């Protein structure tokens, strides 16, 4: 039987091998790419692409999450004037003192870049900024056909729509076409906003047309201030579009120096917050005051003072029981029964108690039981009271002696 199976097994193996070879030769390898979006580091650092773009050019990139560096009067001792400082989301958030420190650094030869971006302010139209006030630079609201909200929506839904960075760049048309000094290269840019800038004074350089400037440059002392309408075109998602990276390379410091990016993550103090929301604070305080006054006026008539009852449950029980018996006209009987029980306990403890006079009994019991002589007299010797309060007082005194025994 095994002799007949061997050739069949060999034949099946050969057929399987041939089929495998044929199938392998007819396989078509297909490579696909899927955009997984930004890495977690890129999502945390919106200018990571700018940093990686400048590094091969030997330009340093430094990120700082506060403005406390500008509290130092001599900023040049910390940041060389050959470097460049860029203030992120800082419009309206720089104090006069810090602005003076920055401008002193610029006058010594530094380059400062600022923009009108500040996502922490609901309305920046009436916000004062000392750096912008220097040359009366202000933002002008625009109503172009570019819709930044639509672009942000596409960015949020890019995983569902299949939109990638290349598709995003196709949406961005050239708002401005220009060239830098001593450079014939035509530069195109879109600043991801419809707004523009306007300013006074002698302008050193501009991007845009009159009435629609997107960058204004002014010389200040030996240095330079560059006012941009927005820095969004240098973010990770936009820097690869048009000539945005080229513009950054032109405005960045020269090789061997550093671009210092300062983020507005300083929180205002409580007084500034209260002043900024002055009306809300006043309305809230008024409502709370009215509610407090209403709660104080909710009572009518004099305040009733609670009677100070003994807290021990046994005394409360005695009071209730005594009151019941008193209402049933059995008060005198209860006192006599209780006195008989207490005297029985006294005889067990003081065997000669009955041979003593009443006064001597009161004196000895007061000493041994550590209670007043009046309490002993009320409990054991005085006639049963006829009123409710006296009856209750006598019962309490008897119970007190009983507890001592």
Describe the protein.
Residues 42-251 form the DUF4350 domain. This protein has 405 residues and is α/β, with parallel strands linked by helices. It contains 16 helices and eleven strands. The chain has a seven-stranded mixed sheet with strand order 1-11-2-3-10-9-8, with helices on one face. The model is unreliable at 159-163 and 307-311 (pLDDT under 50).
CATH top level of the largest domain is: Alpha Beta
CATH architecture assignment of the largest domain? 3-Layer(aba) Sandwich
Estimate the helix proportion, in percent: 40-55%
**CATH fold title of the largest domain:** Rossmann fold
> Strand-and-helix sequence, N→C?
HHHEEHEHEHHHEEEEEEHEHHHHHHH
| Rg, alpha carbons | 47 Å
What count of domains describes the coordinates? Answer: 2
Taken as a percent bin, the fraction of beta residues is: 5-15%
* Structural classification: alpha/beta
**Physical arrangement of strands within the biggest beta sheet:** 1-11-2-3-10-9-8
**Overall pLDDT confidence:** 78
Summary?
The chain has 16 helices and 11 strands. The chain has 405 residues and is of the alpha/beta class.
Write the layout of secondary structure elements.
Layout: H1 2-25, H2 40-44, H3 48-54, E1 60-64, E2 84-88, H4 96-107, E3 111-115, H5 130-133, E4 138-140, H6 148-156, H7 158-161, H8 165-171, E5 176-178, E6 187-189, E7 196-198, E8 205-209, E9 212-220, E10 223-228, H9 244-251, E11 258-263, H10 270-276, H11 278-296, H12 313-327, H13 331-349, H14 358-369, H15 373-380, H16 388-404
Parallel strand pairs: 1-11, 2-3, 2-11, 3-10
Antiparallel strand pairs: 4-7, 5-6, 8-9, 9-10
Helix pairs in contact: 12-16, 13-16, 14-15, 15-16
